[in-house]
Amino acid sequence: MNTVIKTAFASSFLAAAVLAAPISASAQSASPMTYPDKCKSEMSSGGDMSMQGHQMSGMAEFQKESMDGMKAMNMNMMQGMMKKDPDVTFACGMIAHHMGAISMAQIELKYGKNAENKAKAQKIIDDQTKEIKELTAWVEKEAK
Q: How far apart are CA 38 and CA 36, in angstroms?
């Protein structure tokens, strides 16, 4: 199997594993909004997630919350990328991406100590929340 095929297979397996993973309450509450239904796609899931808890053992709480946020963002981005319309794919991908950024920023506000980083995190939350609302309104109006 050549490297490209191995990489594609590994990416597919990772996507399936992420989709099979339960999203923790901290990841769900980290986002100020819900991913639009029109961005969701039917995707099959699979893979053995028995090692999921083990992989996160030894991590600090902020690292675990960061990983949960990334899992949620990746799941949503993968669903958005399955849309047949490139404009909808873009909007859905950006919504998921911004939701991930907001999750990261909220973790910085909760655990961070640097005032400059915390101010930047709050700006990200404010700016990207506005963009999510705009993109979601567009998706709700335009996506079939």
A: 5
